[in-house]
Each structure stands twice: as structure tokens, then as C-alpha cells.
Design brief:
Layout lengths: L8 H15 L5 H17 L5 H16 L3 E5 L1 H18 L2 E4 L6 H13 L13 E2 L9 E2 L1 H5 L3 E5 L3 H9 L3 E5 L6 H5 L2 E3 L3 H15 L4 H10 L2 H12 L2
Parallel strand pairs: 1-2, 1-5, 5-6, 6-7
Antiparallel strand pairs: 3-4
This protein binds ligand PTJ.
Length: about 240
């Protein structure tokens, strides 16, 4: 039992959600460790959404609204922590959702699909249809759906590894990362990097999509033109004070 007034209650509840997902076979063993790394960075950024992340969230919303074929990539941690927000964001954008796992097993992919369906997602790609391959990538993450990530022009990649992020960029896709580590290769390679905790960032991204939805394309393009990911990462790094 976590006391109501515990100063780090939210963080501890998130940990419990991840462990619950682990017990249900959604999260890999390694996913627990990856979460710990995220927690450490979140502690350093003050466990709140900082200004540079808000700029990245706005740019991400603009990019997703401008995309012709956006896809949200979901791994075990993302499914366990934020299935409902992923479902809501996909609905707002009318975009596809694809399961893509680093430590891929067909059993876990199937469980994640079921979990996403329970959260309201009608169609989940990347489970039975991951026949296409991302070139020059050798991890299990190379396996993608033609209908989804393979043909997407914009991919939201929360908690990604650097190799695949780089490969997606090379394929000409606009990539939007959510990663608490501003120093990671994913953070540096993505076009837009939201350095924030996933379950805080997604609701803010949904709000921003709702706000920008009725703006014309020129307005959305001007947001992207003004956005500078390198600068945003540098601002985040300074906030952490490395
Ligand atoms: O489900 P699978 O098989 O695809 O595996 C998923 C993990 C996350 C285990 C896999 O992608 C992995 O090993 O990731 P990495 O390379 O450890 O990178 C995860 C990144 O996400 C790290 O930079 C963490 O700091 C960051 N991170 C962890 N938890 C969160 C986070 N960023 C935002 N929100 C979080 N909750």
C-alpha cells in the first residue's frame, strides 16, 4: 500500500502498473530495467513536464496532423503503462497502431494486441502481419507491417532503441520519440524528441492535437519550421545540469 501523501506516489503507482503488466506477460524482463533507467532521468528532470518538452509536444502534434499515414509504435512497456492514452490518441488522429517489439515473442505480441483491444483499439497491426523488413536493421524490431510502419510517413516511437530510430529516419519517415533520456541515440536521431515521462506526455499530446486540429496546414508547417530539436535537447540537458 502506497500512502496517499507519499511524495513520490505517482512514480510508485507507475511502477506497480508496469509490474502488473509484467505479470500479465505484456512487459519483457528487460522492460523492468528500462523503466528504472527512465525513473532515474525523471527524478533528475523533476518528475514534471518541462518547457522544452512542451515545445516538442506541440511540434509532435503538428507533425502528426500533417502526416498522411501516421503510425503509433507500441512495445511492452508502452502497452502496460499507457494503452488507453494510445487508443485515444489514435482515435483523435485516425491513425494506425502497430505492435513492435525488441524482445519479440509471438506470445507477448498477441497478449499486447489483446490488451490494446481491451483499451478500445479496433485494429492492431504488427502481430500476424509483420512480414515486411526495415532495411539494415538486424533486431526483431526490423519486422513490421506493410500496412503500418513500413509505409508510414510519420511514426511515433515511445521508448525506442537507437538503431531502429536511425533506420526509420533513413527510410525517410518523420520520427517522433518519447524518451526521458535526452542523451540517448534515439533522442538525438529522432526529428522530434519529447523528453518526458510517457504517461504525462501522451495526455498533453492528445490535448495539443485537439487544439491544433482546426488550424490550417500553413500554420502547422510554420510550427515545424520554427522547431529545433537540437536546441530542445540542449535545453533539457541544461535543466538536468549535466
Ligand atoms: O517490449 P520490448 O521487447 O520492445 O522492449 C521494450 C524496451 C523498453 C525494454 C526496449 O525498447 C529497450 O530496451 O529500450 P531501451 O533501449 O532501454 O530504451 C528505453 C528508453 O526509454 C530509455 O532511454 C529510458 O530512459 C526511456 N524510458 C523508460 N521508461 C520511460 C522512458 N521514457 C519515457 N517514459 C517512460 N515511462
Amino acid at each position: 500500500m502506497i500512502p496517499e501523501n507519499h511524495p513520490r506516489r505517482k512514480s510508485l503507482l507507475l511502477r506497480e502498473r508496469l509490474i502488473e503488466g509484467y505479470k500479465r506477460g505484456l512487459v519483457s524482463d528487460e522492460g523492468l530495467i528500462a523503466h528504472g533507467r527512465g525513473e532515474a532521468f525523471d527524478y533528475l528532470i523533476g518528475e514534471r513536464t518541462r518547457e522544452p518538452a512542451k515545445k516538442a509536444i506541440k511540434a509532435a502534434a503538428a507533425a502528426l496532423l500533417l502526416a498522411k499515414n501516421p503510425v503509433i509504435s507500441v512495445n511492452g512497456n508502452v502497452a502496460a503503462l499507457a494503452a488507453e492514452s494510445v487508443a485515444e490518441l489514435a482515435k483523435e488522429l485516425n491513425c494506425k497502431i502497430e505492435v513492435n517489439l525488441f524482445y519479440r515473442t509471438e506470445d507477448r505480441a498477441g497478449r499486447i494486441e489483446g490488451h490494446l483491444r481491451n483499451a478500445g483499439v479496433e485494429k492492431v497491426l504488427g502481430v500476424k502481419d509483420a512480414y515486411a523488413r526495415i532495411p539494415e536493421l538486424f533486431s526483431e524490431r526490423r519486422k513490421v507491417s506493410v500496412e503500418g510502419i513500413y509505409l508510414a510517413d510519420c511514426v511515433l516511437i515511445p521508448l525506442e532503441d537507437g538503431d531502429r530510430c536511425e533506420a526509420l529516419v533513413k527510410m525517410g519517415k518523420r520520427t517522433i520519440a518519447i524518451d526521458l533520456n535526452p542523451l540517448s541515440r534515439t533522442a538525438r536521431k529522432a526529428h522530434i524528441t519529447i523528453v518526458d515521462e510517457l504517461t504525462r506526455a501522451l495526455p498533453l499530446l492528445i490535448e495539443e492535437v485537439k487544439k491544433l486540429r482546426y488550424k490550417d496546414k500553413a500554420h502547422l508547417k510554420s510550427i515545424l519550421k520554427k522547431y529545433n530539436n537540437k536546441k530542445v535537447l540542449e535545453e533539457m540537458r541544461k535543466l538536468i545540469n549535466f
